[in-house]
Specification:
Length: 263
């Protein structure tokens, strides 16, 4: 009987320890991603933590290669979410930047860390990207679409694929009108002729995101990595904007826009 009581006590202690540890705030993901190279200078750094933090006692500092700070020194929660903290950036140039974060979790446990990201020349990979954005999801929807303009500055190339850590799958799709019914279908690699921008936009080519890990809200941002047949992969920061038209969701199997079918 005594052994049974000891085992129960140990189980309670272990459970309490696990619960306390889970409340600690460690870096879960970041935008720009850890050790990433981006060709579009970001206007903010956002860190998602594994637990809720106290924003008054948590900071993010971003410094350039000359150790000068390039952040606005005003860390704030993203959309009121106590697990996500962001700080604005100003006038980033090409170079390597260091992000230093200090977090105080709601249980007062303190954690800290650093990581780097690089801003490369716009044409370092032969690819330019402009206005990467996504619509917010409807309610707790798990499907979204992302859009941007991509240009090959060098040789002919093809946009071959996309990926992001915020969704289970990311695919290149297009919207078509088939006998009055709007459908979406996957597409083969998209041709990029030198100097001719290709715009992914509502009603045409787009990036279909399915299995979102959390809904997208206006003001959110996330990384999207593009792969090409010849150029090096490029990671761009996608900003969630209101845009035009309804939020993603509402179509059969995707949340229901009338007259639309997933194909």
């Amino acid at each position: 009987m005594r052994n049974a009581k000891v085992m129960i006590y140990c189980a309670i202690v272990l459970a309490a320890s696990a619960e306390t540890a889970s409340a600690h705030a460690y870096l879960k993901s970041a935008v720009p991603p850890v050790d990433s190279t981006v060709t579009q200078p970001p206007n903010e750094v956002m860190i998602a933590f594994t637990g809720a933090i106290e924003p008054r006692f948590s900071t993010i500092e971003v410094t350039g290669e000359n150790t000068a700070r390039v952040d606005d020194a005003q860390p704030r929660l993203v959309g009121g979410d106590a697990t996500r903290l962001s700080v604005g950036l100003r006038d980033l140039k090409q170079g390597i930047y260091t992000v230093s974060w200090h977090a105080t979790s709601v249980d007062t446990h303190k954690t800290e860390g650093t990581y780097r990201f690089t801003v490369a020349a716009t044409d370092a990979s032969g690819i330019s990207l402009d206005h990467a954005w996504a619509r917010p999801t409807a309610g707790a929807g798990t499907t979204a679409a992302a859009y941007f303009t991509v240009t090959s500055n060098g040789s002919p190339d093809h946009l071959a694929g996309v990926s992001t850590p915020i969704a289970a799958t990311a695919e290149l799709h297009e919207t078509i009108n088939e006998n009055g019914v709007m459908k979406m279908r996957p597409v083969p690699p998209i041709a990029l002729d030198p100097g001719k921008p290709v715009t992914l936009k509502p009603g045409g080519y787009h990036v279909m995101l399915t299995g979102l890990k959390s809904p997208l809200k206006v003001g959110d941002s996330f990384p999207l990595t593009l792969t090409f047949e010849h150029a090096q992969p490029v990671t761009v920061t996608v900003k969630v904007e209101a845009g035009s038209g309804p939020p993603m969701g509402g179509m059969p199997g995707m949340g229901g826009m009338p007259g639309m079918q997933n194909h």
